[in-house]
Inverse folding.
């Protein structure tokens, strides 16, 4: 089975802070990481390869430094990696990004399955996976927490709000995975040695025959017009006293508000 | 598209350096010294820059110029009119988020002096739900009926709704940011060539354009996004962000305002088949519908202590929520997770027990009417959003609270 995994390099958003004096993002020392859900996608691909044979190709669209993210997936066991990088891609929203990735996938040509993380932690849109599926005209199954392969058929479990749903899907398909699907492996020592020397292929806009009107800022229907800090939180009342007193006080306030 | 620093305006203040989410701006010496100007100026590394525009408003001197070439979408924008709401249904019942969106859509439609429509898909039994859509403000209902639309599947829903969008041309289409809504919206937007903004928490109209505000970077910043040249302007909106309000005098349902549509669904649209729905026995009360939620965090220490949260929830007749840390640690199933990657909730009462209140959690629950926080760390950010805070040991307070609630409710 030949699997393509789409990943994104993101800032570690849990580290992104706002400087209360300047009201701007504090980025110093904020590391770039592989989007955590995408690591789950890489892990899922590697497990399927171990089970069924085949290849795992990891691709990303991003600036040159995104090749670091690709390298660490080689450390995990990916066979091949491709950086899709071109100034012409700058400013892409999810519409243009999914087009660009789908063009790169067409160029690779041979695949049975495309895996993505359910969403990236910087944008949190969950839109690129389904977008790729639409551009390629193949089925999508999102928020997947379990993958089983029997012959040419996939049996997939999806994590929804209150229940899980088990579906059957043909191949090829695009699958987006949630964190619960697995525990991503760390790069092995041997893998890291291989990653160091590995060649990262590069696709430009021309390589993937991208239509200029579908890529980058001009190919993006949406545009960001304003960025600002969320309004500061006021905070309420800290209840003081002995535990008994505090609890009685709290319950009377809750009763006052007619909640119970 | 291009971005540049206007050298005659830059004062070398470094605000843009701090504002750049991609560390693409640095300070360099001014290439040619100019009298009365700063020695340093900002330089944008175009390889790292994604043209996101975050630096532009940070500059107090208008010295950053971001130019977007005029698009060639070629769409006649004036042909698109009306606000549409996708009326998500599960098991034949329209979901609350659809009513919330109709209420908000009513306001947007009034601003635009246009009509508000609901789009409802289902099998013939779904007909029974139509009246509710009018009660929450729809002027019109597009009723798409087909046996294969009983349960949601991406392909047939996309096919059917894309056809109606292409035919009737709405300018705005809102969907709930649920697993279903996000699965559908993303595919639909590519199919019809629409701009799509995920997970909005605020909507407004300016110059007939939908201003879509949403959290980004895990809620650390807010971004306002618009779709200037593509139609419809699509957005998914988090459940519980807007309140649903029933109209006093809704439009009566007539043949004229209920537009029936029978879609053509191909064999290939049915490639993905639903085999089974697996219920989670640990979900006793649905988080989305609960009026009271008691949530547990890392402060519980270990999985077996979750019973303290469950007991209080039970005494209050509420649902059990959880922070991401506890779900990741395997203490409780993901169906309980509240926050950026979990559910957004807005109950009457939210009790956070041993939850520090990272921004990713806060964005999922700060809309609750009354928030109670119990945490032993007085500096925990959760106290910033709490109506009432208790600084103390949850192992002491939870059993006490449960006992007193039981006494109170008999």
């Amino acid at each position: 089975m030949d699997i393509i995994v789409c990943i994104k390099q993101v800032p570690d958003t849990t580290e992104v802070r706002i400087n209360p004096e300047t009201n701007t993002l504090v980025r110093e020392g904020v590391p770039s990481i592989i989007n955590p859900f995408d690591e789950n996608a890489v892990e899922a691909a590697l497990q399927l390869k171990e089970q069924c044979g085949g290849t795992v190709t990891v691709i990303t669209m991003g600036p040159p430094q995104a090749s670091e993210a690709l390298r660490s997936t080689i450390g995990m066991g990916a066979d091949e990696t491709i950086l899709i990088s071109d100034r012409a891609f700058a400013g892409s929203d999810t519409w243009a990004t999914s087009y660009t990735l789908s063009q790169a996938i067409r160029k690779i040509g041979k695949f049975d399955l495309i895996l993505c993380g359910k969403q990236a932690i910087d944008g949190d849109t969950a839109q690129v996976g389904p977008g790729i599926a639409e551009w390629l005209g193949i089925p999508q199954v999102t928020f997947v927490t379990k993958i089983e392969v029997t012959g040419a058929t996939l049996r997939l479990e999806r994590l929804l709000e209150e229940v899980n749903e088990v579906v059957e899907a043909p191949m090829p398909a695009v699958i987006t995975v949630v964190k619960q699907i697995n525990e991503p492996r760390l790069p092995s020592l041997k893998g890291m040695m291989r990653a160091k020397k590995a060649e990262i292929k590069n696709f430009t806009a021309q390589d993937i025959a991208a239509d200029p009107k579908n890529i980058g800022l001009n190919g993006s229907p949406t545009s960001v017009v304003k960025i600002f800090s969320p309004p500061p939180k006021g905070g309420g009342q800290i209840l003081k006293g002995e535990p008994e007193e505090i609890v009685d006080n709290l319950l009377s306030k809750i009763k006052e508000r007619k909640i119970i | 598209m291009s971005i540049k620093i206007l050298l005659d305006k830059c004062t070398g203040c470094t605000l843009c350096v701090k504002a750049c989410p991609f560390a693409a701006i640095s300070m360099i010496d001014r290439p040619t010294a100019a009298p009365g100007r700063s020695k340093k100026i900002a330089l944008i590394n175009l390889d790292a820059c994604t043209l996101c525009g975050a630096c532009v408003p940070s500059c107090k001197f208008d010295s950053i110029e971001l130019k977007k070439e005029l698009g060639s979408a070629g769409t006649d924008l004036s042909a698109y009119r009306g606000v549409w709401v996708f009326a998500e249904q599960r098991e034949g019942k329209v979901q609350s988020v659809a009513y919330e969106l109709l209420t908000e859509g009513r306001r947007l439609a009034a601003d635009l002096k246009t009509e508000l429509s609901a789009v409802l898909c289902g099998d013939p039994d779904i007909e029974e739900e139509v009246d509710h859509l009018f009660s929450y403000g729809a002027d019109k209902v597009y009723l798409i009926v087909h046996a294969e639309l009983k349960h949601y599947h991406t392909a047939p829903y996309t096919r059917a709704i894309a056809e109606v969008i292409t035919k009737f041309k709405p300018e705005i289409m809102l969907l709930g940011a649920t697993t279903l809504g996000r699965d559908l919206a993303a595919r639909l937007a590519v199919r019809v060539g629409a701009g799509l903004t995920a997970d909005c928490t605020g909507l407004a109209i300016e110059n007939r354009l939908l201003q879509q505000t949403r959290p980004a970077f895990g809620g650390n910043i807010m971004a306002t996004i618009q779709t200037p040249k593509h139609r419809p302007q699509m957005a998914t909106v988090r459940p519980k962000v807007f309140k649903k309000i029933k109209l006093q005098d809704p439009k009566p349902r007539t043949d004229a305002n209920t537009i029936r549509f029978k879609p053509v669904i191909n064999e290939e649209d049915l490639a993905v088949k639903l085999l089974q729905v697996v219920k989670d026995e640990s979900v006793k009360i649905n988080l989305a519908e609960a009026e009271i939620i008691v949530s547990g965090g890392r402060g519980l220490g270990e999985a077996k202590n979750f019973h303290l949260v469950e007991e209080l929830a039970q005494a209050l007749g509420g649902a059990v929520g959880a922070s991401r840390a506890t779900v990741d640690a395997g203490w409780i199933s993901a169906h309980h997770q509240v926050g950026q990657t979990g559910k957004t909730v807005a109950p009457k009462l939210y009790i956070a027990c041993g939850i520090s209140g990272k921004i990713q959690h806060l964005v999922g629950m700060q809309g609750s009417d009354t928030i109670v926080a119990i945490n032993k760390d007085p500096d925990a950010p959760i106290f910033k959003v709490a109506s009432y805070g208790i600084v103390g040991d949850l192992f002491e307070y939870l059993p006490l609270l449960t006992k007193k609630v039981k006494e109170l409710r008999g």
